[in-house]
Amino acid sequence: MRLLPRRAEARPVRADLIAFAIAITAIAAAAVAGFLLNGAGAPLYADAAPLFGYWLPRTGPGTPLALATAGAVVAWGPALAARLPWGRLLATAYFTAVLWTSSLAMVDGWQDGIAGRLADWTEYLHDVPRVTDIGGMLGSFTEHILAGQPGSWTVHVSGHPPGVLLCYVWLARIGLGGGAWAAAVTVLIGALAAVAVPATVRALAGVAAARAVVPFVVLFPGAVWAGVSADGMFAGIAATGVALLAIASVRAGPTAWLSAVLAGVLLGFGLFLSYGLVLMFPFVCVVLLRTRDIRAFLLAAVGAACVVAAFALHGFWWLDGYHLVIQRYQQGDFAQRPYGYWVGGNIAALLISAGPLAAVATRRAVVDRGAAAWLVLAAATAVLAADVSGLSKAEVERIWLPFAVWFAVGAAFLPPRHHRWWLAGQAATALAVNHLIATNW
């Protein structure tokens, strides 16, 4: 009589292993194809394709701390997630995520791994000294997007709306200028995803599912690129916006209304951090469809509209910037990257950034009908839309961080006794990438 339940339970586990095997095969195929294409001189512009970087096996100052952090979370994370009071659990998750991200970045040392990351000539800090008048910068921002003209913005500034540059200008104005402060604030904001994702799951799917997610979002393999890149900051801001909207949608009263407006402000501001964050809309739809709280949705829309209006009043219109960025992309060599390779290579890169759990999470989400499953499917929808568009060719392990972090929600579907094994796989993915490949971010 006991064999039937065991057999029934074994079927989804076998399916998980098949999904995992398919993911590993996809990564291996992309790596082999990338190696051969690079050898043939194809314009992949990624020596370690499907990842943007080059092979450089090494250890560094952050290696012992990264190993210790991973080992501690794998060993004790699931048990602590199950029994710690909710507030203390989120605080622990946040500080552990900061530690994990920082230790991975410190594998390359303080200067190369942290302080110098955002000070490169292609990065945002390069153009901060140019901004003497914020209003003037916003009003003339689109005039400097295209390359080959006097005063063109540097690579990353031109490739994004002005909100990112504005953030680092604000930091400099309050006395936190320079690469070290910018990196620290970027990591601290990015780690908010370790709080926001479980908070969203709790609001929509219950506390048990949320507790299961916590260790996985802490040991997020994408932390390799979140430390230190502005895309990690985007992930933290966008996830916090979704969390505030979900919380507002399941509560009542003035506090809930304020949360909804703040959610709209954050998600609206996200549009001016990265053009790609318009693809956070599927997450907003999940919250609306699961809670059916039209009032929270409308209040969030008001908050977002205020942000859009503020930028428009200062002279920056999002659609104008978006169309110019497409032209700027076509001006560069990276536009030559073959779509035929990267449409699959991007998915392989995502499976590394989100970790092996992503394939299992997606498989289980397709057959599940709960709210947690819809969050995973929202992430998959955003990724597929970005991939098919052809506007993301390579570097998606960094660019898609705001979507990749949500695949950690798949932990809610896993049998609890398997959590440590999957956590170990997530950690091993990050450690291997960080110690074998110089990722350029």
Question: Would you write up a description of this structure?
Answer:
- Mean pLDDT is 95; it is low at 1-6.
- This protein has 441 residues and is mainly alpha-helical.
- The chain is built from 22 helices and two strands.
- 68% of the residues lie in helices and 1% in strands.
- α9 runs parallel beside α12 (230-249).
- A two-stranded antiparallel ribbon has the order 1-2.
- The protein has helices spanning 3-39, 63-83, 86-105, 109-115, 134-140, 155-158, 163-173, 179-190, 193-205, 207-218, 223-226, 230-249, 254-270, 281-291, 294-313, 318-331, 339-353, 357-367, 371-389, 396-399, 401-404, 419-436, and strands at 54-55, 437-438.
- The longest helix is centred in the first third of the chain and has 37 residues, at 3-39.
- The relative contact order is 0.15.
Instruction: Tell me the helix content.
Output: 55-70%
The counted number of beta strands is 2
Spans of at least 5 consecutive residues with low confidence: 1-6
Please provide the ordered H/E string of secondary-structure elements.
HEHHHHHHHHHHHHHHHHHHHHHE
Q: What average pLDDT do the residues reach? A: 95
Output the radius of gyration: 21 Å
Shape: globular
How many angstroms does the end-to-end distance come to?
55 Å
Specify the biggest β-sheet: 2 strands, antiparallel
Strand content: under 5%
Put simply, the count of helices is 22
Structural class: mainly alpha
- The strands making up the biggest β-sheet line up spatially as 1-2
